Structure formats: structure tokens, C-alpha cells
């Protein structure tokens, strides 16, 4: 479902409220809420908003934080998704380390992916369900998480975590693959700014071409998917 708002601030507020509703529902039902955070440039303001305006609206000690993807850099590197979330969300809310599951980027990428998959499997072993919420962004090249155009991970068929080598940047990333993302109870894309309009159009309305538009792989099996867009990002959509 598409949710289009006038401004980026409106989008962020709507997604923060959606997060709070899902968290409280899951905590009421299962006594915990599991979320995989997105990285990159878009979600920082969302995390800051949750940590300030919504700090007293969730039992944060019952929230378990994972990452949809991670750069293969140390946890104190400026490109680290973990570092961004730590500064914007974990530190202000004083989240206990036991509730945070960062990717172990001290390992070789393949090993880091394997270990992260094992941690996820162990966490969900008891209740046999997947994430309550996976937050995603959308790159202007139509990647989401670290599912980049023309990378082998696009052909993963078994839910898991994979390493991805980006030829143009000569760097690795670690990512949940599409089958694992699609097991989530809820998936929310956060996309704002005119720079994302072409990608939004391709992913939502263009013919299927997963090599070019990997975010088209995201189709929850039984869960719900919501797009949170501003007018600028939605400007090339024919149907809103
Ligand atoms: O889902 C995600 O999307 C972004 C792209 O977002 P951007 O705001 O940086 O353009 C991606 O790179 C990020 O790591 C990921 O979690």
C-alpha cells in the first residue's frame, strides 16, 4: 500500500507512528518486538524522532534491533549503519546491548554473513516466526537493503544472510536476502526526495526486471508491505 505525504517531515512522523503501533501490538501479544533497521542516508531522522518525540511511547527494553544490511567496515566507522543507529537511537534511549544485534564486521564478509544468519535463526528459533518489522530504504539505483543490481544475491532462493561485493566501489556489504526479508510480518519502505522518484517509479510501476530494479523482489509471503513516500519521491507514479 502507498502512503504519500506532502513533506519528508510528514512521512517521518507517519512512519514513526506506524512503528509505535506495531511495536505496542507485538509487545502486547508476544512480549517483544523485533525490528530490522535500514541504513544509508534516509532513516537517521526517523531514529532521532523515535528517540525524542516517541521515547515514552514504547517499552524499549522489549524491542530487539537487527540490521537489514551493513557496510563491511568497523563499528566505529562513519559508514557503519550500526554507528548511525547507535548515535540516533540506541544511545539516546539507553538500549541494552543484549537487545542489539549488530553484524560482526570484524570477520571476513562470508563469515560475518554466516554468523549473522545463525544469530537470527537462534533468536527466532523459539517462536518460529520472523521479524515483526523490516525497515527498508530505496537507493536511486533501485537497490534496497544491499540487494544491488546485477549481484548474485538477487538469485538467493533460501532465506538467509549473504555477503555482496560491489564491483564499482570494490567493497563488501552484508545483507538479509529477499527470501528472508519476505518472511517478515511487516515491511515498510521509507523513501523521500526527488532523487528517488525514478527508482520509485521503476520499482512500483515498471515491468518486472529484478536485475535492474532489485527492490521488486520484495513481496512479503504473508505479511504486510507499506510504502511511506513524500510527494517528491512519488511524483512520477501514475497511480497514487
Ligand atoms: O534499505 C536500504 O536502502 C538504502 C538506500 O537508502 P539511501 O537512503 O542511502 O539512499 C541502503 O543503502 C541501505 O543500506 C539500506 O538499509
From TrEMBL:
Hydrolysis of 6-phosphogluconolactone to 6-phosphogluconate. Belongs to the glucosamine/galactosamine-6-phosphate isomerase family. 6-phosphogluconolactonase subfamily. It catalyses: 6-phospho-D-glucono-1,5-lactone + H2O = 6-phospho-D-gluconate + H(+). One of its GO terms (molecular function) is 6-phosphogluconolactonase activity. GO terms for biological process: carbohydrate metabolic process; pentose-phosphate shunt. Residues 7-227 form the Glucosamine/galactosamine-6-phosphate isomerase domain. InterPro entries: 6-phosphogluconolactonase_DevB, 6PGL, Glc/Gal-6P_isomerase, NagB/RpiA_transferase-like. Pathway: Carbohydrate degradation; pentose phosphate pathway; D-ribulose 5-phosphate from D-glucose 6-phosphate (oxidative stage): step 2/3. This is 6-phosphogluconolactonase. Transmembrane segments: none annotated. Its EC number is 3.1.1.31. It comes from Mucilaginibacter xinganensis. Signal peptide: none annotated. Keywords: Hydrolase.
Amino acid at each position: 500500500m502507498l502512503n504519500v505525504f506532502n513533506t519528508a517531515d510528514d512521512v517521518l512522523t507517519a512512519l514513526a507512528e506506524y512503528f509505535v503501533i506495531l511495536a505496542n501490538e507485538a509487545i502486547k501479544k508476544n512480549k517483544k518486538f523485533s525490528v530490522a533497521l535500514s541504513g544509508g542516508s534516509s532513516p537517521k531522522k526517523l531514529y532521532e524522532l523515535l528517540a525524542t518525540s516517541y521515547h515514552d511511547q514504547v517499552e524499549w527494553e522489549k524491542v530487539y534491533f537487527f540490521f537489514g544490511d551493513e557496510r563491511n567496515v568497523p563499528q566505529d566507522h562513519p559508514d557503519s549503519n550500526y554507528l548511525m543507529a547507535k548515535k540516533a537511537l540506541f544511545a539516546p534511549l539507553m538500549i541494552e546491548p543484549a537487545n542489539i544485534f549488530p553484524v560482526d564486521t570484524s570477520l571476513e564478509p562470508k563469515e560475518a554473513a554466516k554468523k549473522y544468519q545463525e544469530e537470527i535463526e537462534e533468536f527466532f528459533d523459539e517462536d518460529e516466526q520472523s521479524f515483526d518489522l523490516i525497515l527498508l530504504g530505496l537507493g536511486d539505483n533501485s537497490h534496497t537493503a544491499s540487494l544491488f543490481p546485477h549481484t548474485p544475491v538477487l538469485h538467493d532462493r533460501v532465506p538467509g544472510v549473504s555477503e555482496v561485493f560491489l564491483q564499482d566501489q570494490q567493497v563488501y556489504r552484508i545483507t538479509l536476502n529477499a527470501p528472508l526479508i519476505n518472511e517478515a510480518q511487516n515491511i515498510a519502505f521509507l523513501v523521500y526526495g526527488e532523487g528517488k522518484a525514478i527508482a520509485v517509479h521503476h520499482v512500483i510501476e515498471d515491468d518486472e526486471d529484478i536485475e535492474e530494479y532489485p527492490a521488486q523482489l520484495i513481496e512479503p509471503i504473508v505479511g504486510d508491505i507499506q510504502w511511506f513516500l513524500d510527494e517528491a519521491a512519488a511524483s512520477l507514479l501514475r497511480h497514487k
